[in-house]
Each structure stands twice: as structure tokens, then as C-alpha cells.
Amino acid sequence: MNYQDLFYFIKVAEKGSIVAAADFLKIPTSTLSRRLQTLEQDLGYKLVHRSAKKFGLTDSGQRFYKSLAGIFTDLELSAENVKSELASISGDIRITAPIAAGHFFVKEWVFEFMKENPLVSVDLMFTNEPIDLVAHGIDVAFRLGGVTVNDWIIRDLHATELVVVATPRLLEQYPEPKEPSDLDQLPLVGLKRQPYWRFHDQAGHSVTYSPKPKLRTDEIRLAADAVRAHLGACCLPRYLVQADLEAGTLVSLLGDWLSETRTIHMLYPNRNQLPNKIRSFVDFVIRKSAEL
């Protein structure tokens, strides 16, 4: 059975004639009449009287209409509700981000966006694990470094420099390094997802250093706390330690060597009909990131 034929029958019953229904549906009268005949053949009984003087539903047609009308009304209302939600800034948004970048950047963007759009609710997940965005129903994702995801749009938001830092107290006990290989003389804190530290100098010479950390962790804020506790030096995003550097509680090492930069990316599905709530959040984040 063709379910579109059921919809056509409902409209014929509501409009009171095949001609009026065909005009409403914007299809030829002959086509609509033929589709009704096909539906009657599928059902095995007549639904409408057809004569030059009379048009109306048969007894079977009346009963069939009463059984279907409420269902199709609910479907139309549901479709309108979905259409309304797509057009409005309301409904749920599922967002994921790395833990440190999430706390430093993303949560502030989310909080402000929710204040401006009180009909939006957010499911916010911070994790350093490379989760399946589709399987988790993610609408917007934030990632650091190189990113490739099929069928998702990737927007660069903000590039942050990595910097090797330590406390002044630690440097009272160990010689300050002048070049990357001198880091071997210091206790180090390392990130499990960052097995190499890459540097280059003003002359363009590049060095890849393999740290042998005294403490290893997969959480970057814990690594920063370990550095602040004088446990070692670590290569960290500048945004995470900028306040410490300005306060003098941490110092930057290897002044003649620059470390690599990491870019924060925003990802969202590549769809023609992106819900307005997602589009609005994406545009909001783009504006906010430009202020960094």
C-alpha cells in the first residue's frame, strides 16, 4: 500500500471533492482519481461515490476516514513542530570538547550563548578520548591539532603557541636549558598524547626532542598543576599558563627556540539544512573566537 495514497484520500474527504482536493494538492484531477482507485483496489472496497450528481464517502470510506484522520493530523502537527524547531533557536545541542580547552574556552562560549538563547538546552561533554561523533549524536565538536573527519565542516578558531615552562624554584636547583637537548638535565612532566616536543630557531633549524618525563599524565591541567608544584618542566599551551607567566610564578624556557603551535578547530556536520540552533551557535563561536 502506498501511504501517500492514504494522505490523498484524507485530503479528498476534508475538501469534499476530488477537484477541490486536487487543486489543494496541486496535482491533476485525473491523477488524484487514479490514485484513489488504486487505494480502493488495495483495500478491496469502495471509499467514495462517483457520479455526475453526487460525491461523498461510502460507509466504508467514512469509517476509514475516521480511523485515519487523527493519525494524519498528529503527523502534520509533528512535522510543523520539527519545522518550527529547525527555524527557531531552541532545542537540544550536543557539544564535545577536550577537557582543558573545554574549561578554558568552550564552557564560556556555551554559557553566554545559553544566556542569550534561553530556549536552548545543551548536553556538554568534555573528554580527551577520540569519540565517534556520529554514534554519540554530537552536533558541534571542538578539537586540537590536526583533524580529519569525513562529511564534517572544520573551522579554524584560534592558534595557540606551546611553551616550555618551569617554576623559578625548580631553576634554582637545575641549570636553565639553552637548547632542547639541555632539557635532559631537568625533571620533566609529560603528556601521554604528546611523545615529542618540536622546536625551531630563528635560523630555521628544527629539533624534535623526546622527553623522558618523571610524571606522565593524559590530562593537561594536571600537568600544569605538577609544574606549579615544582615537579618538573613541561611543554604546555600558552593560554593555560599565560597568567602564571605574567605573575612570575612560572618562567618560559628556551628563549631562542620556538615550539610548534596548535589550532583549536570547531567541527559540525556538512548538511544543507543545518538547524538554526546549530547555525546560530556556530556563528556565535566564530565571533567570540575572533576576539581572542
How would you explain this protein's 3D organization?
By secondary structure, this protein is of the alpha+beta class. The protein has three domains: 3-87, Orthogonal Bundle (Arc Repressor Mutant, subunit A), CATH 1.10.10; 91-158 and 263-289, Periplasmic binding protein-like II (D-Maltodextrin-Binding Protein, domain 2); 160-261, 3-Layer(aba) Sandwich (D-Maltodextrin-Binding Protein, domain 2), CATH 3.40.190. It contains nine helices and 14 strands. The chain has helices spanning 3-15, 18-25, 29-43, 59-87, 99-116, 168-173, 220-228, 238-247, 276-289, and strands spanning 48-50, 55-57, 91-97, 120-126, 140-144, 152-166, 189-191, 197-201, 206-209, 215-217, 234-237, 251-252, 257-259, 261-269. Strand 3, helix 5 and strand 4 form a beta-alpha-beta unit. Helix 1 (3-15) crosses helix 3 (29-43), helix 1 (3-15) crosses helix 4 and helix 2 (18-25) crosses helix 3. It is rod-shaped. The two termini are 59 Å apart.
